[in-house]
Design goal:
GO molecular function, one term: riboflavin reductase (NADPH) activity
Distance between the termini: 31 Å
Largest sheet: 7 strands, antiparallel
Number of helices: 4
CATH architecture: Roll
Pfam family, one: Flavin_Reduct
Number of domains: 1
CATH class: Mainly Beta
Protein name: Flavin reductase
Keywords: Oxidoreductase
Strand content: over 45%
């Protein structure tokens, strides 16, 4: 099977959009990701997946912590900044459990790395959740290679 077929099949799974942040030497570092999921309620654990050639990989390995910021529908520009699609844009950060977070994200989840596993061309980081902050709103979604919102998906299904 070719890579395009695999990517197209995976793109049929609608996901939320997150920005993963960490901090080294007082400097925040981030990337847009949709490879995120909850793992356990007791203890509270999540997992993120970082590609082997991503700059974030060594940053998280160094800091041993990260935050997951689940973006709201109106935060597409934030996603594009951390995906490298919008250049020279400034982002302000909030703080949660001594971690940088994205203000107004639907959820901010601060984590300490409890384990890491190399699988294929990615490293999976298991994060022990230290703190959470929630906001009301609708999620930013990604489906079939495009940003979407809940109203878009309703139109796609009709």
């Amino acid at each position: 099977m070719d890579n395009r077929l695999f990517r197209d099949a995976m793109g049929k799974f609608a996901t939320g959009v997150t920005v993963i942040l960490t901090e080294t030497d007082g400097d925040p570092h981030g990337m847009t990701a949709n490879a995120f999921m909850s793992v356990s309620l007791d203890p509270k654990l999540v997992v993120i997946s970082i590609k082997e050639n991503a700059r974030m990989l060594s940053k998280i390995q160094e800091s041993k912590k990260f935050s997951v910021n689940i973006l709201a529908a109106q935060q597409e520009d934030i996603s594009m900044i951390f995906a490298g699609q919008l250049k020279d844009q400034q982002v302000s950060f909030g703080r949660l459990a001594d971690m940088p977070v994205i203000p107004d994200a639907l959820a901010q989840v601060a984590c300490e790395v409890s384990a890491e596993y190399v699988e294929g061309d990615h490293t999976l980081f298991i994060g022990r959740v230290k703190d959470i902050k929630l906001e009301d709103g609708n999620p930013l979604l990604y489906f079939a290679g495009r940003y979407r919102n809940l109203e878009d998906l309703a139109e796609v299904s009709n």
